[in-house]
Structures are given as structure tokens and as C-alpha cells.
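Hello support,

Our group uses your service weekly, and this is the first time we've seen a run hang past the timeout. The protein is histidine kinase. I'm not sure whether the cause is the sequence or the server load. Input pasted verbatim:
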Amino acid sequence: MLQGVKQFLYRSAEYHWNNIVNVGVHPAMPYIESRRTKLLNLLSLPCIPFMFFYCILNTIQGRYILAALNAITTTTSVLVLIFHKKRMYLSARIVLICISILIYTFTGVYFHNGAEYFLLNILFIVILIYDNKWVVGSLSVLVIAAFMLIVFMPRSWYLAPPVPVERVWFNVAVALAFVVVALSFFKYIQSDYQREIEQQRQTLVSMNKDKEKLFSIVAHDIRSPLATLESLLDMFRKGQYPRDDMEEAADVLYKKVAQLGVTLDNVLRWSTRSMKGIQTRPRHFLLAPVVTEVLHFFELIIQQKQITVELQIPVSTALYADRDQVSVILRNLFSNALKFSYTGGQIEVKAQITDEVVITITDHGVGMSPQQLSTLFTSHQHPGYGTDGERGTGLGLLLCREFAEQNGGVIKVTSLRESGTSFTLLFVKGDFSPEDEAAFN
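Update from on-call engineer: The timeout came from a worker crash unrelated to the input. Re-ran successfully.
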């Protein structure tokens, strides 16, 4: 019980302390300005009880002028917090620096109470919170002149009885402690700023990698329809289509242009969503419609290579993953299967529901050697040419593995030379029905 009360009091004190130290700091502030504001708060806070205590003590001891000056210093520290609260940052700095220079110079000259060391605090504050070299230079000269005035002026000038030596030593110790606090906090600012810069650098590196992936996806998804269009137009140019077949070919060409438009819309939509970095957003969805989209995407290539596609996907097969990323994976794997299949070959796309969803894409094409398999999902792979001279970039399979892992899935591959290749995908089982898919669409 007692331990719980202590923890509550500690958390409450910590909460209120953080609120006071961060007075005037708001999320829209530049990083350095927020830290400078916090530094002034941190230096002003202890001054309030410290100077208020000396105000009472000097009043009791009959040093009324010094007590009045202590009261002004206390009020100045409170004003700094108030100005910060009202976001009057320039006013807070001017009030703190100007009044402090005047008061510490006056008390140092006439009371010899060690106030010159408090001027050192002002000097450090000026250097830390201002960037303008003229402002820093002018105020520094003023503070240094005040410091030298206190040190070299005759010690016989008193407006009140001298303060005890013990008080002077205590004042000097407190002033130097403030210097240590200011420098320590500045060092913390610098290290924190460096960490912030490093974090931003890492974010930029990550975003650049994501941008490269997006470019590879865009290039992959646009290149295939464009290659088909190029092939059709070349056949038109060479007169390989009889006049009677021109109308049918024009209809095919129209469908491919329309398909390319849909592809561009999908890719641009997905790319726009990923502009701040590729993000995985899993949801429940049916697998069959995604596979249908993929097959429609490669429809003309399937016809040109006379590939037979065998589908075995239960209608109720559902995944819990990012639908767009799964679509990218399937497009890449099916594109590879088409690329390395011989004309008149066969590709099987199957799905099986167990504790998870198992998807296999199998071709009976050129296959791969053990050496190719060992480097397949690395940047050291050497993509080969397809059976019709198609050339890959080697980036597709890297994306497939990364997207599969980001969705809690696994990708495996088996292959034999001249026997074909089989890719297996394991994904989290979803909870979705055909009626849900229709309602969602």
C-alpha cells in the first residue's frame, strides 16, 4: 500500500514537473527552438524558490534593497514561464537577459555577493539561444564588461552591510551549478539532435529502398502490357494480319489498351498509398478474384505462348494479408512461370486450406540449377532469359520474399533443370465469404 502511494506521488510529481519544464513547447516548433525554450524553463524554475527565499532572508536581516532586487529576479523568472505559455518567446528572452544583467551587475558592484558568477550563466544562455552573431557578440561584450566591472571596482562601495562570506560562497557554488546544468543540457540537445538526424537518415534510406521497389513494380506491371502492344503493332506493320482479321485484332488491341489503363490506375493508386514508405495493411479477402485479375493481366501472353493454365482454388479460400502486396507476389511468380515455360506448356495454380493457406504456382519449363536456387532470393542472382528471349531484372523475387514476410507468410521454391519450377506460398488464413467480397466491392 505504502509502495503504491509512493509510486503515485512520484508519477504525479514527474507529470507536473514535465508540464512546467515544457511550458511553451508545442509540436509545431522547430526542434532547436523547442530545446532552447525548455532550457530557459529549466534555468528559470529553480530561480523562483531560490530567489524568493533570499528575498525573505534579506528582508529579515534588514537588506531591503537587496531583498527588493531578489523579488524582481523572482518575478522575472515567473514572467519567463508566463511569456512562454503565451508563446511570446522573444519577450521572454529579452526580459530574462536584460533584467538579469542589470540586477546582477548592480548587486555585484554594491553588495559583493558573488553575483558576477550569475552573469556567467547569462553569457552561456546568450551563446546557446541566439544564432545571430551580432546579437551574440553585442550581448557577450556587455556581459563581460559587467563581469569585469564587478571584479575590479573598489570593495568599499556598499549600500548595505556586507553579506556573510558563507553566503558569497554559496552563491558562487549555485551560479557554477547553473553553468553545469546549462552546458549539460546543451550537450544533451546536441546528442539528441544527432540521434534525430540519424533516425531521419535511416528513414530516408528506407524510403529510398521502398521507392526503388515501387519503381521496379511499376516497371514490371507496365512492361508486360507494353510488350504485348508492341508485338501486336509490329504484326500490323508487317501485314501479318489479313484484312478480314483486322477488326478482331483491333478489338484485341482495344482490350489491351483498356487493360493497361486499369493496370496503371491500380499501380498508381497503390504507389500513392505507399509514397511515405511501403506499408503493409492486412485485411480479409478472397483469393480467387485476385488470381483472376492476374490471369487477365497476362491473357494475351498466355494465348501467344499457347499456355494451358490449370486452376484449383476453392471459392471460399480467404487470406488475411495486404491484398495489393499479395497481388504483386502472384503477378511476379506467374510472370516468371510464363517466361520460363515452353510454348504449349502448362502452369498450375493451386490453393489448399490447412492451418494456413498454401498456394503453389508450378510450371514445367526450363527449371533452375542448384546454384541458381542458392542465390534466388538474394541481390547476387543472375536473371536468365525466358524461352522467348524475355529478360528479367532480378528484383521481382526479392520483393516477393519481402512482401510475403511482411504479411506473416513464407515463400519456398523447388526446381529441377528441364523439369520446371514450383513456388509455394504460405499465408495466414482469412475469414471471408463470397457474399462479403461482393458487398465489399
